[in-house]
Amino acid sequence: xxxxxxxxxxxxxxxxxxxxxxxxxxxxxxxxxxxxxxxxxxxxxxxxxxxxxxxxxxxxxxxxxxxxxxxxxxxxxxxxxxxxxxxxxxxxxxxxxxxxxxxxxxxxxxxxx
Length: 113
Known about the structure:
The protein is mainly α. It has helices at about 10-15, 20-45, 50-65, 70-80, 90-110.
């Protein structure tokens, strides 16, 4: 079964050091869940600026792990710069949360965390 992430860029950054790959994965697992929660809370509270900050902060990590959420993150950033209601971004938020929850589970299983 295909994973929702890939480690091509992570392995490039680690330069073949498997223990460094593990550190990068561990850092991802520590940072992404609270960022997801904070972004979700910001959207629920109609805090566009805070939602933007967390979406923007996640973007490099998603790219590094080959997680295909760029379209949703860009939509989140654009929404943050608008006066649109939270309902306008709920689908993208759901896609981000669902995908990242799956990725977190896959990484924990694959790295025995």
